[in-house]
Amino acid sequence: MTLAERLALALERGRQTNPRLLAGDLRDGDDRPHDAMTPAAVLVAITDAPRPGVILTQRTETLRRHAGQVAFPGGRIDPGESVIQAALREADEEIALPPSAVEVIGAVDPYRTVTGYTVTPVIGVVPADLVLRPSEAEVASVFEVPFDFLLDPANHRAASATWQCLERHYVEILWEDRRIWGATAAMIVNLSRRLPWA
């Protein structure tokens, strides 16, 4: 069975379960309706390797929002685009990942961010030997983390910080010298709960 077939089967099984998912990091009392949120999509690109990995980016320090943070390639959905089209376009723009190189498995549960976005992760399989080039304006570096490491709940650490005078709770995942946290880590937690994987 190919990696894409295994992922598709796991995703289908996961859709039949009802795990407790992290819905979003909105503050208490923030009850903005769905149409007040900006739709966005990210690509969870999984490399077709003996030990599959997930491609992540480190954002540049000069960005106005989320400077220096680890993220999936992705961004805002343009008018007329589907979540899949947006995720593929953004990955092409940010890290030169050709849409034709992605075998799309499907979209998973959206996540609402405190910055006003509803982000839909799109899972796809990509060749392990792709040469990726980060866009200098947005991406400082591109790296890969083993898929099984990210999905392992033992690597999901609870953390908290004070933000706008409120204590905010979040998850962080430490990989080598990288800190994955916030919405990216929350979407990984959701994947680990939605995607039964062995």
Could you say which structural class the secondary elements and strand pairing correspond to? alpha+beta
What is the β-strand count? Answer: 11
Distance between the termini: 13 Å
Q: What's the helical proportion of residues?
A: 10-25%
Largest sheet, strands/sense/barrel? 5 strands, mixed
Textual characterization of the structure:
With 198 residues, the protein is of the alpha+beta class. Helix content is 22%, strand content 35%. The protein has helices at residues 3-15, 83-95, 147-151, 182-194, and strands at 38-48, 53-59, 70-71, 74-76, 103-107, 111-112, 117-127, 139-146, 157-163, 166-175, 178-181. The strands form three sheets. Strands 1, 4, 5, 6 and 7 form a five-stranded mixed β-sheet that branches. The longest helix is centred in the N-terminal third of the chain and has 13 residues, at 3-15. It is globular and about 50 Å long. The model has no long low-confidence stretch (mean pLDDT 88).
What does this entry show, briefly?
By secondary structure, the protein is α+β, with helices and mostly antiparallel strands. The chain is 22% helix and 35% strand. The chain has helices at 3-15, 83-95, 147-151, 182-194; strands at 38-48, 53-59, 70-71, 74-76, 103-107, 111-112, 117-127, 139-146, 157-163, 166-175, 178-181.
